[in-house]
Design goal:
The protein has about 425 residues and is of the alpha/beta class. The protein has 13 helices and twelve strands. Strands 10-9-8-7-6-5-11 form a seven-stranded parallel β-sheet. Strands 1-2-3 form a three-stranded antiparallel β-sheet, with helices on both faces. A two-stranded antiparallel ribbon has the order 4-12.
Length: about 425
C-alpha cells in the first residue's frame, strides 16, 4: 500500500526537567472534596442542524457540568462534560457517585481508579471525564504540563476545522474553507449525510476545487450510530465502498465513520480497497478491547477514540500506543467541551503517531466561545497552522476568573 502518511510535527527541543521529590514529612496527597456545578443553556450559535440527525430541532445552546476535585494540599483539578440537554440533576448524580468512591483516595493511583471506578460505571453516565481532573491535580503536584508527563514528543499539533452544521451549500462550504485557511487551519472536515451518493459527493468536490491542494479535506459520514432514537444509517457496505473510492479519486485525506462502529469486517473491506485515503473512526467505541479488535481486523487506518466517551484518558493513551504498534495514526475525537480538546492536545503532543487535532469550528452555528466554555478566550490556532500545547502545570486551561466567580467555582492558583 502507498497510503498517504500524516506529516508528523517536529519534536519539542526542550527536555523534561527533573521532578523534585516531595518534602519529607509532607502529608500524602489525598482527595478531600468534590463539587459539581451545572451551567445550562450556553449559547453556541444559532440554528445548528445536526448531521447525525437532521430531524432534530436546530440547536442554539448546550449544557455543561463542571467538576472540581479538591485535595488536602490545596491542589484543585477541574474538568467539564457537555452535551445538548443534559439530564436534569446530572450534577447531583455525578457528585454522588464520585464522592462515594474518591474521598480519601490518592489521585496518583490512576490504574486503581480505572479498575475500581471507571470500568464499573455504566452508560449513559460513564464519568470518564473525571479522570481529567485527577491528571490536572497530578500535573500541578509535579509542576509539569500533562504533555510533558506523558512523553513530550512535540509541543504543538496541526488542527483541522471541524464543521458541524449540515444545511450549508457546497458553495458556502467552499468559501468557508478558503476563509479558514487564511486563519491558519491547514485542513477542514465536512459532513456527509445526504440521501443520494451524488449529493454527498458534490460537497467535497466543490471544496476540493476551491482549495486546489492547499488544504487537506476530510469528510464524516456519521454512520456509526450513537444514541437510541437516531435514524437508521443511510449507507450500506456497497455505498460506503463506492463513495470511498470516489472520494479517494478526488484526493481527500480521510473518510470517517461510513458504517456502524461494530461492522469491522465491512469496514476492513473498505479500508483494504483504498491506497491513498485514510478510513477513520472509533469515536463511539468504548474500551481497549474494542480498539484491539478493530486494529487486528484492520477496520481503520486512522483511530479516533474519545477520552470522554471511550476512555478514560489512561485507556485512550493505551489505545494510542496500540495504534502506533500497528502503524496507525492517532487523532482522538472530542465533542463535549474545550477541556476535551485540551486533553487531546496534551495526549497528541505525547504520542509519536499523532495526527490532526480536532478543533470544533463552525462560526455562527458552533462558535468556539460557546464550546470552550469557561475559558477566558478560545485556545488559539497560530498563523503557521499549529495549536501550541499549554505550558502551565496540569491541564493548563485558560480559565476565566469572572466565569468562575459567577458560577461559584473555586479559582485555581
Amino acid at each position: 500500500m502507498t497510503r498517504r502518511r500524516f506529516p508528523l510535527p517536529l519534536a519539542a527541543a526542550a527536555l523534561l526537567p527533573a521532578v523534585p521529590a516531595p518534602g519529607k514529612g509532607a502529608a500524602p496527597l489525598r482527595i478531600t472534596g468534590i463539587r459539581t456545578t451545572e451551567v445550562r443553556s450556553v449559547v453556541t450559535g444559532k440554528g445548528l442542524v445536526l448531521p447525525w440527525d437532521p430531524r432534530m430541532t436546530p440547536q442554539d445552546t448546550r449544557d455543561y457540568v463542571f467538576v472540581q476535585i479538591f485535595t488536602n494540599q490545596g491542589l484543585v483539578g477541574t474538568t467539564v462534560d457537555g452535551d445538548y440537554q443534559l439530564p436534569p440533576g446530572i450534577g447531583r448524580e455525578v457528585q454522588s457517585r464520585a464522592e462515594a468512591y474518591f474521598i480519601g483516595k490518592d489521585p496518583f493511583a490512576i490504574e486503581v481508579h480505572n479498575r475500581e471506578f471507571f470500568q464499573k460505571q455504566k452508560a449513559p453516565v460513564r464519568l470518564f471525564f473525571l479522570e481529567v481532573a485527577l491528571w490536572d491535580i497530578i500535573g500541578k503536584a509535579l509542576g509539569q504540563p500533562l504533555y510533558r508527563l506523558w512523553g513530550a514528543s512535540t509541543n504543538r499539533v496541526r488542527p483541522y476545522a471541524a464543521t458541524v452544521h449540515f444545511s450549508k451549500t457546497a458553495e458556502q462550504r467552499a468559501e468557508d474553507a478558503l476563509r479558514f485557511r487564511e486563519l491558519g487551519f491547514p485542513a477542514i472536515k465536512l459532513r456527509l449525510h445526504a440521501m443520494t451518493e451524488e449529493a454527498d459527493l458534490a460537497l467535497p468536490r466543490k471544496v476540493m476545487d476551491a482549495v486546489r491542494g492547499t488544504m487537506d479535506v476530510m469528510v464524516d459520514a456519521n454512520q456509526a450510530g450513537k444514541r437510541a432514537g437516531d435514524p437508521p444509517p443511510v449507507w450500506d457496505a456497497g455505498r460506503a465502498l463506492r463513495t470511498a473510492r470516489a472520494l479517494e479519486d478526488m484526493g481527500l485525506f480521510w473518510l470517517e465513520e461510513p458504517l456502524h462502529r461494530f461492522a469491522y469486517e465491512d469496514l476492513a473491506r473498505v479500508r483494504a480497497s483504498l491506497k491513498t485515503m485514510h478510513l477513520a473512526g472509533g469515536e463511539g467505541n468504548v474500551g481497549l478491547a474494542d480498539f484491539a479488535t478493530m486494529l487486528r481486523k484492520g477496520a481503520f487506518s486512522y483511530l479516533q477514540p474519545d477520552p470522554m466517551i471511550g476512555g478514560p484518558v489512561s485507556v485512550i493513551r493505551k489505545i494510542a500506543a496500540a495504534a502506533e504498534a500497528f502503524g496507525v495514526p492517532f487523532g482522538p475525537h472530542h465533542g463535549k467541551s474545550g477541556v476535551g480538546m485540551l486533553v487531546n492536545l496534551h495526549m497528541q503532543c505525547a504520542a509519536p503517531n499523532s495526527g490532526y487535532l480536532e478543533y470544533m469550528y463552525d462560526p455562527g452555528f458552533w462558535n468556539p466561545e460557546g464550546f470552550q466554555v469557561g475559558f477566558a478566550a478560545p485556545w488559539p490556532v497560530d498563523r503557521s497552522g499549529y495549536v501550541q500545547a499549554p505550558e502551565k502545570p496540569g491541564l493548563g486551561a485558560p480559565w476565566d476568573r469572572a466565569f468562575f466567580r459567577k458560577h461559584g467555582l473555586q479559582w485555581e492558583t
